Amino acid sequence: MNALRTTVRTAARPLGRRNFIEGLNKTPNQVAESRAPFINRQHLHGAENPTYLKQDGDKMVSFAGLALCFLTWGQITVGLVNMKHGVGKCD
Length: 91
Known about the structure:
Radius of gyration: 28 Å
Number of domains: 1
Distance between the termini: 71 Å
Helix content: 55-70%
Number of helices: 4
């Protein structure tokens, strides 16, 4: 009996507005705009002109990532050398 009452109450509730979901569904599709630089220059794809360096600022982001990788590799190397020689310990 209680289960029937609960079911009837939940089914009779009015649906609320879904502002967040509606906002996501109503955004314009910008895929064509973001693909335009790659479609207009199709013959330039390849190793000498990679697609990840075509947008403004891509070279700086790639350089920053590469610099982080090298700095991390250097810190790991310094740590391994310190462990090998037993120096740089926290007493």
